[in-house]
Amino acid sequence: MKFKCNKDFLFKEISIAQEIIASKNAISILSNIYLEAANDSLIIKATDMKVNFQTVVPVTVIEPGSTTVFGDKFLGIISTFPYDEIEFSQKDINITVKPTTQKKPEYKLKSIASDKFPEFPVSTTSFFDIPIKDLKEMIQQSVFAVSDDETRYFMNGVYLEKNEGQLKMVATDGRRLAFVGKDVNKKVEDFSGIIIPPKILNTIVKRSGDEGLISISVSDKTIFINFASYKFSSILIEGMFPNYKKVIPENQDFSLTVKRDEMLNALHRVALMVEKKSHRIYLGISSGKMAVYSEESELGTVEDEIPCRYDGDEITIALNYRYLEEPFKAINEDEIKIRFSTAIKAITIEPVPEKDFFHIVMPMQS
Prior knowledge:
The chain is 18% helix and 42% strand. It is of the alpha+beta class. It folds into three domains: 2-116, Roll (DNA Polymerase III, Chain A, domain 2), CATH 3.10.150.10; 128-246, DNA Polymerase III, subunit A, domain 2 (DNA Polymerase III, Chain A, domain 2, Roll); 254-361, DNA Polymerase III, Chain A, domain 2. The radius of gyration is 25 Å and the shape is elongated. The mean pLDDT is 94.
């Protein structure tokens, strides 16, 4: 096996592959990246047995073949390579990486035979297309609310379903909930809800652009996501996702509106004095203004104040500041509305003007 290629083209794709297998440290087939050269193209594959990645890059193939190479070292070689063009060759288990026009530097690596690399699943259901921009927004508005409590594994991913003419994403950790729903083509068939691990979703947000379409196929145990030259698939999380509709308040009597940046800046200042275990802060809401303050601790306390549009009764609500900060960061609009009923019932955070997503947060005990 032997090929030549541009270093920058290869680096970009190997970086994605290494992200997939980054948690694998031991030298094994799952720490390796699969390479197959033929017809002036290079197929690249990586897997951690849950998430799979495949892409194709143009190369000059001198001798076709396939092998696998230890991903971490291969990426390190490419990232520090001093020339634009790389020559990659393999004989038996030995791999050589060097410049195309110079003798040095010359790297020698060991390989593992490509026939030991796991087979990837193939979709048995049809794909549907949605704009990449829409899917990225759905992920960005939901994935941060996923639970990290492994004993409640059914909340360790983002719930996705298609019904009522919408593609819906929901995430919750039991104390907050993120919901986003996008209208989709009526030709997209309804499917039962699935739970997607966040790893594949975060990779898609990081690696996709904002233009074009993304193709999705859903089976009982696997989701397939394709865009550009990339093909991803992921095993789904098994289990019954909570009935999120019961958490969404039907009526909330009061609301206030604040500037997004002013609220984020206040949260940042107050967070310096927040008790690290509880993350509890207080919102003291009154006509035209909101006090944002921490509770008394061994370190002391802090109080800030920002303007808001509100003309109801005075009320104080205790909240985990991270549960406010994360949705405020995810929302891009200049103004954000907080709706509520009482100090102990769920609050709703949504953009102004209203869009197709919102966030629910449960208050803490005062």
